[in-house]
Amino acid sequence: MVSQITRGIKISVLTSFEGTYFKNYRIHFAFSYQIKIENHSKDSVQLVTRHWEIFDSLNELEIVDGEGVIGKKPVLKPGEFYTYSSGCLLSSPHGAMKGHFNMINFTTTKNFKVIVPSFRLSAPFALN
């Protein structure tokens, strides 16, 4: 598990290799990740958008931007947390992801960026 705190918001990531399967005549490596967002600040905040940089050792960098996470824009009061799971497909058994969440602080009404630390996506059988 990797974790990082930005402006009182702690992001923790746990990854898992889910297996391989064929799609469009190519093998793909499926990974899941669970993200926990904890509000250790004194203000209520809301996650508004996400930005991902997905590194695949056999492909070019993929950038993914979007609203919320898994269709939700969670609001976190001080001391609260939100957990969600998602996943990605890679062309190789090795890769990584990193990114950030754009959030709004309800007290100051200002937007701010919360860093999601880089996390590895590695199939156990490919590690040596």
UniProtKB/TrEMBL annotation:
Coiled coil: none annotated. Residues 3-128 form the ApaG domain. InterPro entries: ApaG_domain (IPR007474), ApaG_sf (IPR036767). It comes from the Bacteria. It holds the Pfam family DUF525. PANTHER family: F-BOX ONLY PROTEIN 3 (PTHR14289), POLYMERASE DELTA-INTERACTING PROTEIN 2 (PTHR14289:SF16). This is Co2+/Mg2+ efflux protein ApaG. The lineage of its organism: Bacteria, Pseudomonadati, Bacteroidota, Flavobacteriia, Flavobacteriales. The gene is apaG.
